[in-house]
Amino acid sequence: MNTIAGQNLGRFGIYAFGFEHRSAAGIRSDIEELEELGWPSLWFPEVGGREAFTLVSLLLAATRRMRIVNGIARIGQRTATATQGGALLLADAYPGRHTLGLGIGDGLPGVPPLAAMNGYLDELDALAAGASQPRIPRVLAAYGPRMLELARDRAAGAHTYKVNVDHTARAREILGPNAFLGVEHAALFESDPATARAIAREHLHIYLTTPFNVAKYRRLGYSEDDIAGGGSDRLVDDLVYWGEPGAVAEKLRAHIDAGADHLAVQVIGVEPGRSAMPQWRLLTEALLPQNITA
Question: Where would one find the signal peptide in this protein (predicted)?
Answer without folding.
Answer: none
